[in-house]
Amino acid sequence: MKPSRGDAVPFDPVMAERRFGVGLSPGRAAPGSVAAMLDSLAGPDAMARAWTIPPYERAEPSRATMRARALAVRDAETEADRTAAMEARSRMRMAARELYARNLAVEMARSVDTHDGLRERLARFWADHFTVRALSGGYRHLVSPYIEAAIRPHVTGRFADMLRAVVTSPTFLLYFDQLRSYGPNSPRGLKHGRGLNENLARELLELHTLGVGGAYTQRDVRQLAELLTGLSSSARRGFHFRPGNAEPGAETVLGEAYGGDDPALDDILDAMEGLARHPDTARHLSRKLAVHFIAPDPDPDMVHAMADRYAATGGDLLATVEAMLTHPAAWDDPYRKVKRPVDFIASGLRALAVPPDRIVGAGRRDVHHLLRVPMRVMGQAWQAPVGPDGWPEADSEWITPQGMAGRISWAMRAPERLLEALPDPRDFVHHALGPDPSEAVSFAAGAAQTRTEGVGVVLASAAFNRS
Fold first, then answer.
1. Looking at the predicted structure, is the pLDDT value of residue 1 above 60?
2. Does 326 map to a domain?
3. Sign (positive or negative) of CA dihedral 391, 165, 324, 211
4. Structural domains counted in the chain
5. Considering the domain boundaries, does residue 186 fall inside one?
């Protein structure tokens, strides 16, 4: 039977934008139905075309360029050559900082400009699920290109395809130190006495697929780690498979045997398919999506429906999201999630209708002071989570004295730096919260002595900070 696509759920366009999208906007109409949301999500990625971020393979400066500049400095034979090489490296580093700032600005511009807010939220969700962090500041500009290449194209596709793209991404392999993992009985392992690194295998099982408490054992971790040997990358070649690093022989993961005497990348990709289709993966991902979008304790029946849909479709993520949106529990009131800082600022920019070209056209220093530093003060350093499990979901992690001070400061100071003229707070409260804001927030906005204070009161309100 074909799903209802939301005909029977208590759809609310304001909730559609606030809970599942990037916030209300005076210049972008909210979707009129669940079917409209799903149709937009199934359509082309308009924001990726309008506001471009280079995919990893085309991002500059690349790892190859950075390595070449470093070698040029090291190998310079004369003082003049060394000076020229150092100047070239300095220009390269500035270009990396400029790209890093522009990537953040583009992410915010997409949130402001989109008619498909759910796609932007899903892109951030899955980027957090497959968290990476640059190993040094010089490589920060390559995180967004990793997301653009490995994550964003797959948010409405099969989870297995996203998983395959991620585990063959140089950024992901570097983050989990996979390049140092050698099969104990591989030619290079035996020659150099190097051993196995189980880090990537453990996180793939515990964080990215089956989840904590999933049906895997330490033996599965070990066998998967042995299977993953051979995954490699370099500045010159990018991602590649190195048979000489790979453990020979078949590996058994969750009862399935993969590979043989001649190690091959296809064996690893087949294992990713198996992990993606496991019932525990269906349950883990479904609950994680529901927690992120709806509540810390989502309705079990809704999570079950999502997991069933995931399993029935072979891990189709659009179908899984559809199962969430077409379940009545997805539309329960009240708003029970606190926005993370990146979502708070994105929804603030959207409610203010800041022109997206103004955001993207801002200089590196403005992006730093208006976006990056405030996020860090609020507790979320952009693309720099503490660990591989990404950013926390618990409200207590975000509602802290410093975090709230950061939100209030941004609400009171940033709007007038972003716009030539602020909106009337009596109108803005509806732009930000919808046609029926609370009486307390409406009164406070109308009673403010200045537009700056009135707009700030709305943005700093508890109602605006929840989704």
1. no
2. no
3. negative
4. 1
5. yes
Question: Could you count the other beta carbons within 10 Å of the beta carbon of residue 251?
Answer: 24
Q: Is 49 helix (H, G, I), strand (E, B) or coil?
A: helix
- HEC readout, 220-266: HHHHHHHHHCCEEEECCCEEEECHHHCCCCCEEECCEEECCCCCCHH
Distances (CA, A) of 185 to 188, 196, 316, 396: 8, 10, 37, 47
Tell me how far apart the alpha carbons of residues 7 and 36 are, in angstroms, rounded to a whole number. 11
Question: Which phi-psi region, left, alpha or beta, contains residue 5 (left: φ > 0; alpha: ψ -120 to 50)?
Answer: left
pTM beyond 0.90: yes
Query: Tens of pLDDT along 94-125?
Result: 999 999 999 999 999 999 999 999 999 999 99
Residue 290 in domain: no
Domain that holds residue 264: 170-277
SS3 202: helix
Cα 56 to Cα 169: distance, rounded to the nearest angstrom? 9
> Would you state the structure tokens that stand for residue 398, as one six-digit string?
């975000």
Note whether residue 142 is domain-resident.
Answer: no
Lookup result for tokens 């890093």: 100
Q: How far apart are CA 195 and CA 278, in angstroms?
A: 29
pLDDT at 162 over 90: yes
31 by Cβ neighbours in 10 Å (0-12 / 13-18 / 19+) ranks as buried
CA distances in angstroms from 233 to 102, 313, 336, listed in the order given = 26, 33, 42
